[in-house]
Amino acid sequence: MDWIAQVTERLRATGGRMTSQRRLILETLAQCTDHPTAEEVYRRARQRAPDLNLSTVYRTLRWLEELGVVGSQRFEGERPQDRFDPAISANPDHHHFRCRLCNTIIEFPAPLLEILKRDFIAHYGGSIESASLIFYGLCQSCLQKVESYGPLSFNPDAILDHTR
Amino acid sequence: MDWIAQVTERLRATGGRMTSQRRLILETLAQCTDHPTAEEVYRRARQRAPDLNLSTVYRTLRWLEELGVVGSQRFEGERPQDRFDPAISANPDHHHFRCRLCNTIIEFPAPLLEILKRDFIAHYGGSIESASLIFYGLCQSCLQKVESYGPLSFNPDAILDHTR
DNA sequence: GTTCGTGCAAATGATTTGCACTTCG
DNA sequence: CGAAGTGCAAATCATTTGCACGAAC
């Protein structure tokens, strides 16, 4: 049984209905290899159904989030907006790296995080139910580009000269 | 030299001016043991200067963020709003635990994170400039309360009975 | 005195919601 | 048919911004 059929099943189990809009949004998500915003899902899906509404996209995404089918997170360095992660159900324990230059997001496992959790609980008590780990930096190809260009020589006076 | 004097110095170094509003906001932050929102800083500070404006609080907090004097982060499970962290300059390498019940935030060090960064770079290349790690769960005292209460017996039919 | 900062009100922008209409089961 | 979902427009709410006035240096 494929992903969409599984989601449909969970949906029916909670008294929900499968509609053409929901199917379209699910199919759009299934094709994503990135972490789209609601607006991006909307734009991509609307190519096949121009009268789809952004509210419906939001409602569907939030509903999928409750079902545990997609994740959502916000990243620093861009305008504050949720990005949705269709990979969470296939691969629940992943974390994110985001490249500051090309904005690529890399998903990676972090089994060592369990040790960090254990350390925390040993020191402070309590219990940990979930964790969010995000790395920010330069991805491999952006780092290579920056290195091959060499450092920029920044001279404020030279810039001022241009204005004369 | 105390914290406020240090901040004033950084401020002057970049052509900024010290005003009564900024001093008040700094003093308010210095007394915080939690991670207040802009609105909360505003409410606390306004007790001493009722004509302080929320815009000024935002502008000051963003400026302190640029100076590296305060940090800002958002937490899940509440309405999306920035929380400001006055402790970042005294203790730059800390991360956050947030209790799902009492909303207490615990700051903790995570030196092991360096190993996770090294592992990531070994696998994917690139470079890491910053990291955000947030744990969500129950703090020690909330966990004890939950455990001492014992599990709740949830019976939907019993709830329906009340409506008759 | 000139530059920088503040207060105020209005703008922004992502997200949510009320409501009349439509569709699924 | 009746509950659940959609489209549309309007509401929300945190945050930002334009502008005229006031304060710091």
Describe the structure.
The structure is a homodimer of 164-residue chains. By secondary structure, the first copy, chain A, is α+β, with helices and mostly antiparallel strands. Chain A has 2 domains: 1-92, Arc Repressor Mutant, subunit A, CATH 1.10.10.10; 93-164, Ferric-uptake regulator, C-terminal dimerisarion domain (Dna Ligase, domain 1), CATH 3.30.1490. Helices cover 45% and strands 18% of the residues of chain A. Chain A has 7 helices and 5 strands, in the order ααααββββαβαα. Chain A has helices at residues 3-13, 20-31, 38-46, 54-66, 113-124, 140-149, 156-162; strands at residues 71-73, 83-85, 94-99, 105-109, 127-138. A 3-stranded mixed sheet of chain A has the order 4-3-5. Chain A has a two-stranded antiparallel sheet with strand order 1-2. In chain A, helix 2 (20-31) crosses helix 3 and helix 3 packs across helix 4 (54-66). The radius of gyration of chain A is 21 Å and the shape is flat. Mean pLDDT of chain A is 90; it is low at 156-164. At the A-B interface, helix 5, strand 5 and helix 6 of A face helix 5, strand 5 and helix 6 of B. Strand 5 of chain A pairs antiparallel with strand 5 (127-138) of chain B, so a sheet runs across the interface. The first copy, chain A, binds a DNA duplex (25 and 25 nucleotides) through residues 15-22, 37-39, 51-56, 58-59, 62, 79-82.
Mean pLDDT of chain A: 90
Structural class of chain A: alpha+beta
Main sheet characteristics of chain A: 3 strands, mixed
Looking at the chains present, what oligomeric state does this protein adopt?
Answer: homodimer
Give the second-level CATH assignment, the architecture of the largest domain in chain A: Orthogonal Bundle
Principal-axes shape call of chain A = flat
CATH fold descriptor of the largest domain in chain A: Arc Repressor Mutant, subunit A
Span from first to last CA of chain A?
Answer: 69 Å
| Succession of helices and strands of chain A | HHHHEEEEHEHH
Number of helices of chain A: 7
The radius of gyration computed from the alpha-carbon positions of chain A, rounded to a whole number of angstroms, is 21 Å
Order of strands, widest sheet of chain A: 4-3-5
Assign a percent range to the helix content of chain A.
Answer: 40-55%
Tally of distinct domains of chain A: 2
Protein name (chains A, B): Fur family transcriptional regulator
Pfam families (chains A, B): FUR
Organism (chains A, B): Thermanaerothrix solaris
Family (chains A, B): Belongs to the Fur family.
